[in-house]
Amino acid sequence: MARSTFGELIRERRRRADLTQREIARRIGTSTPYIGHLETGKRHPSEEVVERLADALGFDRKDLFLLANPKAKAIMAMPDTTPASAWEEFRRNAQLQSSMHVTGEEMEMLSRVALMGQVREPRDFVYILNTVRQALNSP
Questions:
Q1: Which of 77, 83, 99, 134, by CA, is between 20 and 30 Å from 53?
Q2: What is the SS3 assignment for 69?
Q3: 78 pLDDT above the threshold of 80
Q4: DSSP state at residue 15
Q5: Superfamily of domain 6-77
Q6: Cβ partners under 8 Å of residue 128, min gap 6
Q7: Is 126 helix (H, G, I), strand (E, B) or coil?
Q8: How far apart are the C-alpha atoms of 44 and 68, rounded to whole Å?
């Protein structure tokens, strides 16, 4: 048996629930013609409409979203190639922290700097730390 499309599945579930397009449209806050367009594949639903349809027809939101957005499933299956943030690299580098004698207070301060989102390299935290240390020790 061929896999149903988003529209076919919506129509099938609506009919099994003995609901008209008008009733579903009213329940999810759209127009009757829009439901018809969804069922025939002439329109693509927004995330909000998918959620409301899932709730109204008893579907799992995630499953219905993936059926409405088949490319999303492929994207979700892709490995995460996002490089670790500079902060995470610095935070995990215990050897560097030890060699720099970084205190807990200094780590807290650097974590706040990291929230600014402008630090690109872990070594930049060493520069920031040294700058702050010099500023605090100056007469």
A1: 77
A2: coil
A3: no
A4: H
A5: lambda repressor-like DNA-binding domains (1.10.260.40)
A6: 110, 113, 119
A7: helix
A8: 7
